[in-house]
Amino acid sequence: MYGGGNIFEPLDKSNIKDEDPVKLAEFEARIERGEKIEPTDWMPQLYRKQLIRMIEQHAHSEIIGALPEGTWITRAPGFKRKLALMAKVQDEVGHAQLLYSAAETLGKSREQMINDLINGKSKYSNIFNYPAYTWADCSFISWLVDAGAIVNQVANSKGSYGPYCRALERICIEESFHLKYGHHCVIHLATGTPTQQKMMQEAINRWWPPMMHFFGPPDKISVHTEVLMKWKVKMATNDECRQQFLDMYVPKIWELGLTVPDPIINKNQETGKWDFSEPDWEEFKRVINGDGPCNKERLAVRRMAEERGKWVRDALRNSEEQYVTPLA
Amino acid sequence: MGTGCFKKFRRTVCYTPGIVSMEESLDPRVNRLPGTGEWKQEYEKHSLDQFPTFEVFVQAKEDKPFQHEGIVHAPDSNFAFLFAKEQYSRRYSCSGMWVVNTQNVLVSDYTENSQNIYDTLDLDPEKGPLMPYEVFHLMRRGKQHKHVGRVEASGKNHALMEAKVKFDSDKPVMNTWVVKSSDIFQTQNEHKTIWDTLPLKQFREATDYRGGEKIREFKAKQKE
User: Fold this and answer.
1) Residue A103 falls within a domain, yes or no?
2) How close A70 gets to chain B, by Cα (Å)?
3) Structure confidence at residue A228 (pLDDT)
4) Which of B107, B115, B118 is nearest to B68 (CA)?
5) What CATH number corresponds to the domain at position A218?
6) Residue B17 confidence class, pLDDT cut points 50, 70, 90
7) Distance of CA B140 to CAs A36, A170, B1, Å?
8) Higher pLDDT, B110 or A89
9) Domain membership flag for residue A278
């Protein structure tokens, strides 16, 4: 689950000029033909750097994203929900493993990626810096945050980097269970007792602003992404993903008798696009830069897991080993 | 909208979008643990703290070739198999699995424009006793390496030259991997019941979650 392809920092495009023009032309022609780029191929520095950043953020988002849901496993209503949520959380952690591996083929070690996460140098999907107070919050994440992630991941799975696409194909298949399971949880609450209905509605109200943040700032204020679109690193703009999400899921929320906390949300019949209120982008910036309700806790839990597992890793370590980059 | 107060143990957390504060975790397990405060020092993992990588090959069904699916990090091949079984066969059918340390794979060059890798290979074969080697082919970009068979050779270069004779065909091969068979951890066919748990876990399948009926009932009730 992830709001993929967001560019949080301006791109430094200066080094494109320094690339070998013949190789760059061959590289771009290959992408133009729809062929995949594999780890051993020549690639521009910017392509490598941007992909590492994007895949790494995606991996971190899977790990951190499993934390708010993981908290609810013991309190999920009923044994079957517990089993299902446990399987879902395990899937998310498995996705992180697949994604870290894909990023490693580009030359950044897993140790370095984990250091950068724990030290607060890498970003992850901002929505997981918010707390899941109730079972309805957990159900919102399982259904709608995963739905948003699927919109992004399906787009990105058609990108140009072979190992990332292969990881995403596998991930998307697993996500189909998450989506149906999450929808099932929400249907259960929305068609249940008045207390359950109220609980679900309150969760939607809480999560809607971060859900609108999820796809990143609007295209008109985002940093330029043309070169990344051309190289098929980013496959759809933030606005395109957000529109697709609204189109697919707002009607499904409405059909359950629930509302979206936005007075102007409506599909504009003339433009065919959804009108919606812009969420508070200052809050987005503040939270993604560390000042959200759960940022500290999320990283603290991750760091604690690292430190508590250290003696096991040290005991198993074979000092004869040498690192080689994984193959594909 | 979206304002709510939640009684949590001995205190109350108030939440309003935009103005949020959390004093302690909503996860009681986190609150019980020591050391959730701030760390002063940068965290630094040493090189290979996460262990080396193993390449994982999965046989989806008994008549299918072993196909490369990805990697796991592990201290040795036993652990690698354990992690790979969880990672790559948890949600997919599987009838066999091979894992091999990435260092033990000899990778040929990648060819361009439908050139056959075997047409470019002219290596000096090693001398010595013959040992079995497994050969994997990549036919197209974006696809995965598949096992094509075994050759007897004195070393990896020799194995590649033997593969050139044994597995060359009309279809151009883009890239070849060879691995000494004894370097591969292979699951045994006689243990195949280890793969049998999958179909029982319906709760992990999308098909197990049908909400349509409930929605229809709900809508009918609303119309009344």
Assistant:
1) yes
2) 9
3) 87
4) B107
5) 1.20.1260.10
6) very low
7) 9, 19, 54
8) A89
9) yes
B43 contacts A306? CB cut-off 8 A? yes
In a domain, A191, yes or no: yes
Q: Which residues of chain A have pLDDT under 50?
A: 1, 3-5, 7
The answer for B 112-151 residues in CB contact with A (under 8 A) is: 141-142, 144-145
Cα dihedral A217, A223, A226, A232 sign: negative
Going across the sheet that includes B19-20, the strands are: B4-8, B11-16, B19-20
One-letter identity of residue A177: F
Over residues A45-85, the pLDDT tens digits come to 999 999 999 999 999 999 999 999 998 999 999 999 999 99
Contacts of A188 in chain B (CB under 8 A): 211, 214
Please report the number of interchain residue pairs, chain A to chain B, with beta-carbon separation below 8 angstroms.
196
User: Among B30, B121, B49, which Cα is nearest to A304's?
Assistant: B30
Digit-coded pLDDT (tens) for B180-203: 999 999 999 888 888 886 566 888
- Whole-number average pLDDT of chain B: 85
Tokens matching residue B148: 């094509």
Give the Å distances, CA to CA, from A81 to A132, B24, B88: 17, 26, 24
Domain boundaries, chain B: 53-189
Q: Which of A55, A110, A314 to mutate to test the interface with B (most CBs of B within 10 A)?
A: A110
A205/B50 touch (CB, cutoff 8 Å), yes or no: no
Number of compact structural domains in chain A: 1
Residue A152 domain-assigned? Answer: yes
The closest alpha carbon to A70, from A253, A308, A302, belongs to A302
pLDDT at B128 over 90: yes
Which structural domain, as residue segments, surrounds residue A182? 14-315
Residue in B with minimal Cα distance to A163: B142
**8 Å CB contact of A84 and B204:** yes
Q: Does B4 touch chain A if contact means CB atoms closer than 8 Å?
A: yes
Q: Which residue has the higher pLDDT, B16 or A70?
A: A70
Q: What is the pLDDT of residues A139-179, one digit of tens each?
A: 999 999 999 999 999 999 999 999 999 999 999 999 999 99
Question: Would you call B99 an interface residue with chain A, using a CB distance cutoff of 8 Å?
Answer: no
Interface contact A39, partner B, CB < 8 A: no
